[in-house]
Amino acid sequence: MRALGRAFLGTVILAILAAPGCRKVEPDPRAAEASAPGTPACACAGRSMKLATTTSVDNTGLLAELLPDFRARTGIEVQVLAVGTGQALRLAEHGDVDAVLVHDPEAEAAFLAAGFGVHPQRLMHNDFVLVGPQSDPAGVRGAADTVEALRRVAARGAPFVSRGDGSGTHMAEKRLWAAAGATPVAPWYAEVGQGQAPALRIADEKGAYALTDRATYLYLQDQLGLRVVLEGDARLLNVYSFMAVPPSRFAHAKHGEALALCGYLGSAEGQRRIGAFRVKGAQLFHPDLLPAAGGEGAR
Predict the structure, then answer these.
(1) Candidate CATH numbers 3.40.190.10, 3.30.450.20, 1.20.1270.10, 3.90.190.20; the one for domain 6-125+239-293
(2) Taking each helix axis from N to C terminus, what angle separates 168-180 and 146-156, rounded to the nearest 10 degrees?
(3) In principle, which of 13, 74, 146, 208 could form an S-S bond with 159, CB 3.0–4.6 Å?
(4) Over 70: is that where the pLDDT of 80 sits?
């Protein structure tokens, strides 16, 4: 097992010991430098927690890169529910998960204000892009920004596929339509009620435009005829944040485990892995807690 930094190990121990039923283990003096393979920081092997997160985080393979290392370091198994942000927050509001990793700042603010989440932590970002057919029938490539691009789509009645599922991407799209002063309507506008990958495939079949997070598009790019037709607008910044479910609201919440996961994702090693994650040579997520990443915007 990889060497554990002192700061990260301390965070994990304090977080896990806060969980009911986790007894303290006297540490080996050398534990801050290294642990035996498969040995967690305390006697919590076999414990688990539930994380609700977005389809973009899960489908791209990022969690498959991160969670095995987290389990090896802590002994905590993370059960992932990959849904849209809206559904992820509803799961947390009903106490069905222990933490969320989502990307809708407005919904997150309401969630925190209502007392359903604690310890919010911005972890990473990428950006949204507008994709469409290579022929670009609405002339989106010449638009100055996303607002102008959507006005052109509406004016031409060009096909547009929306996730329509209350996800962070869907809510961002709705805000962009409102900023454009345009009302998307059938028959050219279709809400499909699907995750990002299925929505992109439907848009590809229909020769339609769509808003997508860049990570999912890059992951599927070789399977699609869609091309990026607009990018780089400041409105397209896509931020991912972690929040834990408070035990004060749900006594069964695995709060210690959730904080341990947050500590890992925000640690130097977790952030390094997020930044190093590649699909077909492309970086999909940009860490926000590494010194070099501070203040970095959408690319």
Answers:
(1) 3.40.190.10
(2) 80
(3) 208
(4) yes
164 in Cβ contact with 196 (< 8 Å):
no
- Locate 28 and state its tokens: 């080996």
Per DSSP, 134 falls in state T
Give the CATH architecture of domain 127-236.
Answer: 3-Layer(aba) Sandwich (3.40)
Whether 108 contacts 102, CB under 8 Å: yes
**Confidence category of residue 46, pLDDT binned at 50, 70, 90:** confident
Domain residue spans in the chain?
6-125+239-293, 127-236
Would 6-125+239-293 and 127-236 be classified into the same CATH topology? yes
Collapsed DSSP state (helix, strand, coil) of residue 110: helix
Q: Using alpha carbons, list the distances in angstroms from residue 98 to 27, 86, 216, 260.
A: 27, 16, 25, 12
Counts of helices then strands in the chain (DSSP H, E): 11, 12
Sign of CA dihedral 109, 111, 117, 123: negative
Predicted structure pTM score: 0.79
Q: Residue 51: what residue type?
A: L
Q: Which helix (H) or strand (E) holds 124?
A: strand 118-132
The answer to whether residue 291 scores a pLDDT higher than 80 is no
Q: How far is Cα 173 from Cα 112, in angstroms, rounded to an integer?
A: 22
Q: Which residues of 200-220 are buried (b: 16+ CB within 10 A; e: fewer)?
A: bbbbbeebbbbbbbbbbbbbb
